[in-house]
Design goal:
It is a single chain. The chain is an alpha+beta fold. It folds into 2 domains: about 15-205, no CATH class; about 210-485, no CATH class. The chain is built from 16 helices and 16 strands. The strands form 4 sheets. Strands 1, 2, 3, 4, 5, 6, 8 and 9 form an 8-stranded antiparallel sheet that branches. A 3-stranded antiparallel sheet has the order 7-12-11. A hairpin with a 5-residue loop joins strand 14 and strand 15. Helix 7 packs across helix 11 and helix 13 (about 445-450) packs antiparallel against helix 14 (about 455-470). The chain is globular. The chain starts with 13 loop residues before the first helix and ends with a helix.
Length: about 525
């Protein structure tokens, strides 16, 4: 049985479901698969316990138990299983056994994506532990891949292993070799049916997710100021060291080193691939120029539009969207800074939202979680988080625009303050906040939002980018004819997309009727 698609605890009406930009049929299928995966993981809890005991080096008398599924947390890409450990003479301590969901990561279409995600996330932990000591992140005790490879933090290994790894790390640093991690290939770890990470649990004694108190406290000026400074500190710390390529760090299983040799792995790219878009950027592909990266990202969006069954509403909407896709390429050169087109680049959080930030009761930032989508990206893409005023990216217009601009200025002032007071000075001469202000004035921030955004690009382009070039309210309508240059035989493409939409609505209606009869 497929579970109901719920938003805010309620089943949306069929009409609102039709208007929703996302593919609800796919989400229904994914919910059903996730339920099955949770059932399988619960059935395999004995193996999970054995694996956690092994990675943590627990004694025979130490208790270790997987808590019931009702306590688990299911996110967009992972299931977090709580494991409780009670050592002799100590109080209970929780750990997180984090499992990627293959059906959310296009594993069936592109085998190896799950391991790619785990390796990139592990690399982010290693890199931050090494270079961003001012950022509080959970401790990563160990992780494993679908191919049966397991890696354990050297602290949990023998004294001989710890001394040898410390010596090897010193040699790597001395000779300028790739960063050698503290994670050791563990050939004796028990088998388990999933890729995984074993993480420290950040409990309420440390802090809570920002999302838990966001609605209640976001208008508190003092709390907001502390939040801005904490977020600014994280962004500046990540951007402190210049990067030579556009991409993501990857943990290399052959030698436990971490290198910038993976494609820029963003959550929006994974969602598009998981929705059926052909893979545009290969796992080991990095970029040396902003133009080539931008071109491939726009191509990925084009492919998503072509393969998403619920991509257009009707023929007019199809022509409008195709026109905007074409125009995004036409205007891209206006928003690439010539001096920095070939680097250096900076590390950025591509999924920096309220549930990934931990704060205390006064909104001092005390930690950050979910590091899988950290990428080295063009400096032009570094921007103030759009959600600071509680508005979606495509809703920042009129009064909301004024409110966001005020919040943006406050945030950048906090960044200026943190840049002056931090003890970890940048190893480059990029004036970060200067360029963030410049991208706002040039409207570049909205272009790069279109590159990042899954569904908001349509309105962002019309509301913010078009006015930079024309005051004509019917600008897009008058240019619909240029959609013919977006794809060959565009009339056939439009016809196919309209048929896709009719089929999607018919199948969704049937699904709703089935739910009503249950």
């Amino acid at each position: 049985m497929l579970s109901e698609p719920r938003y805010g605890g309620k089943l949306p009406t069929l009409e609102s479901a039709f208007e929703h930009e996302g593919n609800l049929l796919l989400r229904l299928q994914q919910q059903h698969i996730a339920q099955g995966l949770r059932h399988v993981l619960w059935g395999d809890r004995a193996s999970i316990v054995s694996l956690v005991r092994h990675h943590l080096g627990l004694a025979t008398d130490d208790a270790c138990v997987v808590l019931p599924p009702s306590s688990w947390i299911q996110g967009a890409f992972n299931i977090c299983i709580f494991v409780e450990v009670i050592k002799q003479g100590a109080s209970a301590k929780r750990y997180i056994f984090r499992c990627p969901m293959p059906h959310k990561l296009s594993e069936e279409q592109h085998p190896g994506t799950v391991d790619e995600k785990v390796c990139c996330e592990a690399a982010s932990y290693v890199w931050i532990q090494e270079h961003c000591t001012d950022i509080r992140i959970p401790r990563l005790y160990g992780f494993g891949l679908t191919n049966g490879c397991h890696f354990t933090h050297v602290d949990k290994m023998s004294l001989r292993h710890r001394v040898y790894r410390s010596l090897c790390r010193w040699i790597h640093r001395f000779f300028g070799l790739p960063l050698l991690s503290n994670y050791v290939h563990n050939t004796s770890a028990p088998a388990v049916m999933t890729a995984y990470s074993i993480l420290e649990y950040i409990g309420p004694e440390t802090g809570q997710m920002l999302s838990d108190s966001w609605a209640e406290c976001r208008n508190d000026v003092a709390r907001r100021g502390r939040l801005y400074r904490g977020m600014a500190r994280i962004m500046l710390s990540l951007a402190r060291i210049p990067q030579r390529s556009i991409g993501a760090y990857r943990f290399n299983t052959s030698d436990s080193t971490v290198t910038l040799t993976n494609r820029p792995l963003t959550c929006s790219a994974i969602i598009m691939e998981n929705s059926g878009a052909p893979r545009t950027i290969q796992p080991r592909q990095t970029y040396q120029s902003v133009e080539s990266f931008t071109s491939d990202m726009l191509t990925l969006h084009d492919n998503y539009l072509l393969h998403q069954p619920h991509a257009v509403q009707d023929e007019d909407d199809a022509y409008e969207r195709f026109t905007i896709r074409l125009l995004l390429r036409a205007v891209s050169h206006h928003f690439i800074l010539p001096r920095w087109r070939d680097g250096p680049y900076v590390l950025q959080l591509t999924d920096f939202h309220q549930s990934n930030i931990f704060v205390d009761s006064e909104w001092n930032v005390v930690g950050m979680i979910d590091l899988e989508w950290i990428c080295s990206l063009p400096i032009e893409m570094l921007s103030v988080p759009y959600w600071l005023t509680g508005c979606s990216i495509d809703g920042i217009i009129d009064k909301e625009y004024e409110d966001f601009d005020e919040a943006r200025q406050d945030f950048l002032a906090a960044m200026d303050e943190e840049a002056e007071t931090t003890s970890l000075k940048p190893k480059h001469d990029i004036p970060i906040t200067h360029f963030m202000r410049e991208m706002w004035l040039s409207k570049g921030v909205w272009f790069w939002a279109c590159v990042r955004s899954l569904n908001g690009w349509l309105f962002v382009f019309e509301d913010h980018i078009v006015p930079k070039f024309s005051n004509d309210k019917k600008f897009i309508t008058r240019l619909k004819g240029v959609a013919a240059l977006w794809q060959e035989d565009v009339e056939s493409v439009v016809k196919a997309k309209v048929e896709d939409e009719e089929t999607y609505k018919r199948e969704l209606r049937t699904c709703y009727e089935g739910i009503a009869q249950e």
